[in-house]
Write a structure and sequence with these properties.
Layout: E1 11-19, E2 25-32, E3 44-51, E4 57-62, E5 70-73, E6 76-79, H1 85-96
Antiparallel strand pairs: 1-2, 2-3, 3-4, 4-5, 5-6
Length: 104
């Protein structure tokens, strides 16, 4: 008999989507992992996206498996130093402020 490992799921901690009058789309999804792993030692999985009306990325913070924490500014990608979920949200809000009339 083959034993199956029970896989625990990530718990959503914050999720939001907003379309601004200008057509700018803001999507945020932050999950708490059941336990940290090598690629996400802080224990969070996240994707914060700000795109134009055509869906092109203006700013995106994410930590997809195998790439670690990083941020995209258009087509340019650079590492991101994760400090906390609160700081992640603050950094994202700061970075998208120039694209948005109202990000609150």
């Amino acid at each position: 008999m083959v034993s199956k490992k029970r896989q625990l799921k990530a718990t959503p901690t914050y999720s939001a989507k907003r379309v601004l009058p200008s057509g700018v789309v803001i999507e945020i999804a932050i999950y708490r992992l059941p336990q940290p792993d090598a690629g996400r030692p802080h224990g969070y999985k996240y994707r914060l996206f700000c795109g134009d009306a055509r869906g092109r990325c203006l700013v995106r913070y994410d930590n997809e498996q195998g790439k670690g924490d990083h941020v995209h500014y258009g087509d340019r990608e650079q590492p991101y130093v994760f400090a906390s979920a609160e700081q992640l949200l603050a950094d994202f809000a700061r970075d998208i402020a120039s694209y948005c009339e109202d990000v609150s």
